[in-house]
Design a protein that fits this description.
single chain, 275 residues, mainly beta, Jelly Rolls, seven-stranded antiparallel β-sheet, six-stranded antiparallel β-sheet, elongated
Length: 275
C-alpha cells in the first residue's frame, strides 16, 4: 500500500509539472456559455511535509448538462519495478476515467453527504456512504449533508460496519451551519453554535449535556441498525433509532438545519437510506 501511494504521488507530480491546467475561479465557468464541450479538468498540487516526504492532492472538476448531475471520476495507478545490470527501473502507469452512469436530475435533491468532510473519513457511493480511513483514530470523522433538511424530512442512516476497539459508537446531530460556512471540527460537539447532538444515550446542545438520559444508547448499535434525525414543521427536533422516535430533543429549532453524522470511535461505515 505504501509503494502504491508513493507511486501515485510521483505520477501526480509528473502530471503537475508537465502540463498546466486551467482551473476556474469559484462561481465562474471555464468556457463561454455558447460552448457545449464537456471537459474534465484535473488539478494536482504537490508539496513536501515536515519530514521531506512528497505528497500530492488531486482535484477533478467537470460540468454537466441540465439532465444530469456530475459523475464520478476514477483514478487508478500502478507501478512495476525491474532490476537489470545493477540498475532499477520504476515504471508508473496511470489511468483516469469518468463513470458514464448518469444520475437523473430527479435524484439531485436527494440527501447526500458533503465530500468536504473530516480528515479521517471518505465520502463514497455517490455521496450516500461515509467510511472511516484510519480505524485507530477515534475522531476527525464528521460529515455534513449537502443541503438543509426539509420540514418533517427524516435523515436516516444505516450502520454498515463497526469496530470493537473503543466501545463507543456513532454520533448524530444537526447544525444551522453548512459545511461551506465553517471549518470542519473533529467532533460534532466542537462545531460552532448552535448544534444539537446525540451520543451514547445522551443529548447535547452546543457541546454541553442537555438531557442525561435520552433514548437508546447509540453505543449499543450493531451492524444493520438505523439512526435518524428530523426537524418537525412545528420546530421540534427528534432523533430515531431503528425507526422509533426517541422523543422531543429540542424545541424552537431554526428551520435551516443540516444533518451531521460522526463515525465516532468504533463506527466504521454508514449509508444514507432516507427515501
Amino acid at each position: 500500500m505504501g509503494k502504491f501511494f508513493r507511486a501515485a504521488t510521483i505520477l501526480a507530480c509528473m502530471l503537475h509539472f508537465t502540463r498546466a491546467v486551467e482551473v476556474p475561479e469559484a462561481g465562474k465557468c471555464l468556457h463561454s456559455e455558447e460552448e457545449t464541450e464537456k471537459q474534465l479538468t484535473l488539478s494536482v498540487h504537490c508539496h513536501r511535509n515536515e519530514t521531506g516526504g512528497l505528497w500530492a492532492n488531486f482535484t477533478a472538476t467537470r460540468d454537466a448538462d441540465n439532465a444530469t448531475v456530475p459523475q464520478n471520476v476514477f483514478v487508478d495507478v500502478s507501478q512495476s519495478v525491474k532490476e537489470c545490470n545493477g540498475r532499477t527501473r520504476i515504471k508508473i502507469t496511470g489511468f483516469i476515467s469518468e463513470h458514464q452512469t448518469k444520475i437523473p436530475i430527479r435524484d439531485a435533491d436527494a440527501l447526500r453527504f458533503d465530500p468536504n468532510c473530516g480528515s479521517n473519513v471518505a465520502v463514497v457511493n455517490e455521496g450516500r456512504t461515509v467510511r472511516k480511513i484510519n480505524l485507530e483514530i477515534p475522531l476527525d470523522s464528521v460529515v455534513f449533508t449537502t443541503r438543509p433538511l426539509k420540514p418533517d424530512e427524516l435523515f436516516e442512516v444505516r450502520l454498515d460496519k463497526k469496530n470493537t476497539k473503543f466501545s463507543l459508537s456513532l454520533g448524530i446531530g444537526g447544525t444551522t451551519h453548512s459545511r461551506k460556512d465553517i471549518p470542519i471540527a473533529n467532533h460534532i460537539n466542537h462545531l460552532p453554535h448552535p448544534t444539537w447532538a446525540q451520543y451514547h444515550g445522551q443529548l447535547y446542545r452546543n457541546g454541553s449535556l442537555a438531557i442525561k438520559e435520552y433514548g437508546k444508547s447509540l453505543d449499543a448499535l450493531v451492524v444493520g441498525d438505523r439512526v435518524g434525525m428530523m426537524r418537525s414543521s412545528a420546530g421540534n427536533l427528534h432523533f430515531f433509532v431503528n425507526g422509533v422516535d426517541q422523543g422531543p430533543a429540542a424545541s424552537n429549532v431554526p428551520a435551516r438545519i443540516y444533518a451531521v453524522l460522526e463515525l465516532y470511535h468504533d463506527a466504521i461505515m454508514a449509508t444514507i437510506i432516507s427515501s
